[in-house]
Amino acid sequence: MTRPVAGPPGQATAAAEATSPERESAAGTGREPLAPPVTSARAAVWRWRIGPIRGLLRPRVLAVLTAALAVVALAAVIALGHGPNGAGVVQLPALLADPDGSVQARVAAGIRLPRIVTAIAVGALLGAAGAVTQSLTRNALGSPEILGLTAGSSTGAVAALILGADPLLVGVSACLGGAGTAALVLVLARRHGTLDPSALILSGIGAGALLQGATAAMLVRAHPETALVAQIWLVGSVNARTWTHAAVAAGALAVTIPLLLLGVRHLDALDAGDEHARQLGVRVDQARACMGIVAVLMTSVAVAVAGPIGFVSLIAPQVARRLLGLPGASVVTSAAIGSGLLLGGDVAALALPVAGSTPVGATTGVLGGLYLLVLLRKGARR
Length: 382
What we know:
The strands form two sheets. The chain has a three-stranded antiparallel β-sheet. Strands 4-5 form a two-stranded antiparallel sheet. The protein is globular, with a radius of gyration of 22 Å. A hairpin with a 2-residue loop joins strand 2 and strand 3 (about 55). Helix content is about 70%, strand content about 5%. About 45% of the residues are buried. It has helices at about 10-30, 60-80, 90-95, 105-135, 150-160, 165-190, 195-220, 225-235, 245-260, 265-270, 275-280, 285-305, 310-325, 330-350, 360-380, and strands at about 5, 45-50, 55, 190, 195. Helix 2 packs antiparallel against helix 4 and helix 5 (about 150-160) packs parallel to helix 7 (about 195-220). The chain is mainly alpha-helical.
């Protein structure tokens, strides 16, 4: 049986009072809080019970997650049916049963579906990684690309591509590049034994600029054909992705999302501030390190599979926070919105009236730029 649960009369007031120090801190630094304070209506929950199993369900979270998954499903249907050899959902089971029977079946099973699954998994990895890094830094700009993690993974992957390594070594090199960049940024951002969020952002921007310069230097000195392949890869794309790419991205997602869900309580505590987290018994340094390692792994795998696709990890968590109206890291919702953004961007790229296929990294770059301009315009009106 499911029924609404009303919070105590002072819940909304307590939530507002609890967030007032963060508001004052944000006002003093010129930064806005990552999310609006919780209200009693937005914090409404439903209790459910099936035999001995009980749980809580937030209708608003369920509605937003359902809408995001519906967008992903709609984009997948459009991508599957696009073009002269497109296939409908009704035709798909028959085509998969005989993947070598016709051109349409080969296109659906060997080209369209791997591309769709790769886009969904990579978008989810980027969206969830962005939610983690923004909570750890307590900054709306604390995405993997701003922190230099994307640039580090790209540098490692490009180095492997230039050396002619196989795809497995390219992925390993991307992970090593992302991990090394994360370690460097953390060392540079420590002030008197504690992690300074502002210094973390600045260190990430500096490390990212340095690594982008190193990548450009490697491309200049590489063989022209190899440099061209690496340059195209650096735009970020899910073109010509196979079931191997899809399996790697989906496997990484299946491993990392449960790890984040196990530590989401610590992540939400860190989002409220180190002092608050310590009062709740959270080991701040250990929790930040564990969550950071997972975010680095997600970013590195996404970059290794599809290249450095920009703005998805920055936009998805912010859209999730604004739709949910709740504080904390909305990992699952951010992942679903990230999938919708990336797959939707790929569908938009396919629909462009140009010869060839436009990389999705170019589309997400345009969408991200428009999103930031809208936010800037809204801030100017206030």
